[in-house]
Write a structure and sequence with these properties.
single chain; 6-stranded parallel beta sheet; 6 strands; 185 residues; Rossmann fold; alpha/beta
Length: 185
């Protein structure tokens, strides 16, 4: 299973990026996780810039999404929502439908007690507009994220490790189910 992992943060020492990378170490053996690191390279979305001559960075993102069996997105919370850079990336897929029926693990992580629940809700709302298949067992908020990762970026909290493992297993089941013919579901 090919999974595209996207952190919604541009910070080099982002807890969200560390959490996505840590999650990859907990993934089922059947998953191959590719980390998307081109968020900062995407131009601001504008319908006039889209179409047959979309920028190369946009074509790259779309290609990665098309070739992925599923997507893992982890967003921080900025001003009660997801960061503009992540929303911008998602906006670039509206007209081309890369998320349509694609199984997605939607996560948020925050140093606050809420785990970025408003950003999580914002992410889910946008993914719904994109017709993504938000996998319920793979929807997760992680509060106090900095206390759950050690200095090496490994998940040091057993409950968080279990939740991440469970979310990735749910994503794997959803991918397997979506690959079966509809008559077998």
């Amino acid at each position: 299973m090919r999974i595209l992992a996207i952190s919604g943060s541009l910070r080099a020492d982002s807890s969200n990026s560390a959490l996505v990378r840590a999650a990859a170490t907990l993934a089922p053996p059947s998953m191959v996780i590719t980390f998307y690191d081109g968020l900062a390279d995407l131009p601001h979305f504008s319908p006039e810039r889209d179409g047959n001559h979309a920028p190369a960075s946009v074509r790259e993102l779309r290609g990665l999404l098309q070739s992925a069996d599923g997507v893992l997105i982890c967003t921080p919370e900025y001003a009660y929502g997801m960061p503009g850079a992540l929303k911008n990336a998602l906006d670039w897929t509206v007209s081309t439908g890369e998320f349509h029926d694609k199984p997605v693990a939607a996560m948020s992580a925050s140093p606050s007690a809420t785990g970025g629940e408003k950003a999580h809700a914002s992410l889910r709302l946008t993914l719904t507009a994109l017709a993504a298949q938000i996998v319920e067992g793979a929807a997760l908020t992680v509060p106090f994220v900095r206390t759950k990762l050690d200095a090496d970026g490994t998940v040091s909290d057993p409950a968080t490790a279990r939740a991440l493992r469970s979310a990735l297993e749910a994503l794997a089941r959803a991918i397997e189910a979506s690959a079966r013919p509809e008559s077998d579901r």
